[in-house]
Design a protein that fits this description.
This protein is α/β, with parallel strands linked by helices. Helix content is 24%, strand content 37%. A hairpin with a 2-residue loop joins β1 (2-15) and β2.
Length: 150
């Protein structure tokens, strides 16, 4: 499971010109799921996300988590995070899980994250053609892969 975390001032998801969700200050998470992912990956990434100290403290040092700031989280499914560009110029998405596997894992990820955040998380719509807008704060953008824990 892969996450692209962006610290944001605000973020929103639109589908067919309609805003379906939005947040203020917090995190936008793009989530990519592969067939080998499981509850262990979800637990690791959710715990890491809510405790990640990427928000400024009173001295302007990134020393506070989204839990500490009371920030919001918007989660968007993003199968292209598993793109392989090894051969040719057209990315391959063979590593991305099919919907029968990825939808339940995505829903479990959102549920677990909400429990750890102690409030609901905003979401996109799985599999939809979404327009995601954001104001990246910093910018701060962090990549985490549960299979390659660096």
């Amino acid at each position: 499971m892969r996450l692209l975390i962006q610290r944001v001032r605000e973020a929103a998801v639109h589908i067919d010109g309609q805003k379906i969700s939005s947040i203020g200050e917090g995190m936008l998470l793009l989530v990519g799921i592969e067939e080998a992912d499981n509850e262990e990956d979800i637990g690791f990434l959710c715990k890491k996300t809510v405790n990640l100290r990427i928000f400024d403290d009173g001295k302007g040092v990134m020393n506070r988590s989204v839990l500490e700031t009371g920030g919001d989280i918007l989660v968007v499914s993003q199968f292209t995070l598993h793109a392989s560009t090894k051969k040719g110029n057209r990315p391959s998405y063979l590593r991305a899980a099919k919907p029968d596997i990825s939808i339940p894992l995505y829903e479990q990820f959102c549920s677990t994250l909400s429990e750890m955040l102690l409030k609901p998380v905003a979401t996109g719509e799985f599999g939809a053609d979404m327009q995601v807008s954001l104001v990246n704060d910093g910018p701060v953008t962090i990549w985490i892969d549960s299979k390659n824990r660096e």
